Amino acid sequence: MSQDQVETANRFWRRSLATVITVALLIGAVVVLVHIRSTTRVITTDSNASSSIGVPVTYNYTCCSSSFVNTIYHPGEVIALHWIREIVQPIENSRFTIILKEKLSGPFSSVGTLKSTVTALPKVSEPVEISAPVIRVSNTRAQRPVSLIHIPLDAAAGYYNVSTSVFFNQTGNGTEGASIIRISP
What are the extents of the domains in the chain? Predict the structure, then answer.
């Protein structure tokens, strides 16, 4: 065999060996992933939820995705506010109801007027208030609550405050938040 033929044969065998090693590594990785997937439990969504290591799971809720804020609404439409579920540190042996509330108030001629009215002390009454039905959820059950606010057919154009509240039934404590939306005829 000539020197060129020997070098060509060596290159061929090195490439073949590299290909075989690469395939073997890929097969090994797939086997490991299948094993991991088959031995890992996903967090359950039943009323007695627990993590993969048996620790109780507790849920909390916040509102909402920002997509509802970046939309211009019209009279007669329904605003669907999807609450965001979060897994939180469990409270030992504690089950309770979480109360979710949302309210639409307005109209205001500008964002500045809305903010100054909402933060005014003493409280200035807001022109129109529309509340979504109150939602009650368990802190131990994974749920996907949605609040619906029906915009009246005669709703005036302007800026509206969407206030949200999450209250914990056993303590009365909770959190509040707000966003601004626009309604246009």
Answer: 1-40, 58-183
